[in-house]
Design goal:
- By secondary structure, the protein is of the alpha+beta class.
- It contains eight helices and 15 strands.
- A four-stranded mixed β-sheet has the order 10-11-15-14. Strands 1-9-8 form a three-stranded mixed β-sheet. A two-stranded antiparallel sheet has the order 2-7.
- The longest helix has 17 residues, at 41-57.
Length: 372
């Protein structure tokens, strides 16, 4: 498949200045940096393309050759040097010089200093009432913790890790590549020490040199009243242990709320469908309305129509970090009896006649019984 034009990759014209090229590169490199998209192969590929394009267009020499010969100028089969994959390391010297590194936690492959541990996510299911009123839950979280035996060094107690001789303790190895068009350097993570800059000669018997052990931690989670489905609680420092003395990551507890058999939630308001006898709707009177805190007496007016919505203030969900509550909206449905005895039918017929109606009569546009 033909390679995409370098100018198109950076989104600049062929007459773009050096500053325009640099600005476009900075923007795209930040957008597709692998620390922002862990495990995203598409972003990884775009990041490589952006770096490759900038490597050429930022050099007056290489840009001139590219403008004249295109990609063939760097094709090894045509006498050019080509580009090294190097797991992004081939361009890390450019990137680090321009941005100083991102410093996002969880990536230990290119840094020899302390790095923050990985964040963790825990899905916790609670009832509708627990979400409404708040609750305290205990959870068990499997995670990687720093080994207490070696204090996270990975070395046997009484010994210390030594400086890696392959990279001189930097965790990175710089390589110089010569081509017919000149030379350029690449920086790779040291394969000997895996980027740590140190070698453990005698490993810790408990963690076997990893500096970390798998543990299950029991934690107490305070869930505030009013939390909604899909919201998360952040427990700082309860994620996995950091690398090389770095701080621990965070634990995000994501809440899943089970549905209620009566109520539906809309923000901090509650929705309730309630059926009442047609006689109650016609005559009005006092009904009992269920709420999350128990039944509540409410008086409905005579002639209440199907679909009428009543609003009960402050009978909804408590707002987060507030003493106020949402409201309860009750939608009225009318119960029509399915079986009537002869006496009941006779009474209804008499009622219909007194209202000037026949039981079988239906007229378009005419208001129904409960409007009268």
């Amino acid at each position: 498949m033909a390679k995409q034009d370098y100018y198109e990759i950076l989104g600049v014209s062929k007459s773009a200045s050096d500053d325009e090229i640099k600005s476009a590169f900075r923007k795209l490199a930040k957008k597709y940096h692998p620390d922002l998209h862990p495990g995203d192969k598409e972003a990884e590929a775009k990041f490589k393309d952006v770096n490759e394009a900038y490597e050429v267009l930022s050099s007056p020499d290489k840009r001139a050759k590219y403008d004249q010969f295109g990609h063939a100028a760097f094709d090894p089969t045509m006498g050019g040097g080509g580009f090294s994959d190097a797991g992004f390391g081939g361009f890390s010297d450019i990137f680090e010089t321009m941005f100083g590194g991102f410093g996002f936690g969880g990536s230990a492959r290119t840094r020899s200093g302390p790095v923050q541990g990985n964040d963790l996510r825990y899905n916790l299911s609670i009832t509708f009432e627990e979400a409404a009123f708040g609750v305290n839950k205990e959870i068990l979280v499997p995670r990687e913790e720093s080994c207490k035996t070696c204090s996270g060094s990975g070395a046997k107690p009484g010994t210390e890790p030594v400086k890696c001789t392959a990279c001189g303790g930097s965790g990175q190895v710089r390589m110089q590549q010569n081509t017919v068009f000149g030379s350029f350097s690449t920086v790779r993570t040291c394969d000997v020490c895996s980027g740590s800059g140190k070698i453990v000669k005698e490993t810790c018997p408990d963690c076997r040199g990893r500096g970390r052990v798998s543990k299950t931690k029991r934690l107490s989670v305070n869930i505030p009243a009013g939390i909604d489905n899909g919201q998360s609680i952040n427990l700082r420092g309860e994620g996995e242990a950091g690398y090389r003395g770095g701080p621990a990551g965070d634990l995000y507890v994501t809440i899943s709320v089970k549905p209620h058999k009566l109520f539906k939630r809309k923000g901090y308001d509650l929705l309730l469908d309630m059926s009442i006898p047609f006689t109650s709707a016609a005559l009005g009177g006092e009904i009992k309305v269920p709420t999350l805190s128990g039944s509540l007496k409410y008086t409905i007016p005579a002639g209440t129509q199907p679909g009428t919505v009543f609003r009960l203030r402050e009978q909804g969900i408590k707002r987060l970090n507030s003493d106020s509550k949402g409201d309860l909206y009750v939608t009225i449905h009318i119960e029509v009896p399915k079986r009537l005895n002869e006496e009941q039918k006779d009474l209804l017929n008499k009622l219909a006649q007194s209202l000037g109606e026949r039981a079988s009569e239906a007229k378009p546009g005419r208001k129904g019984f409960f409007c009268r």
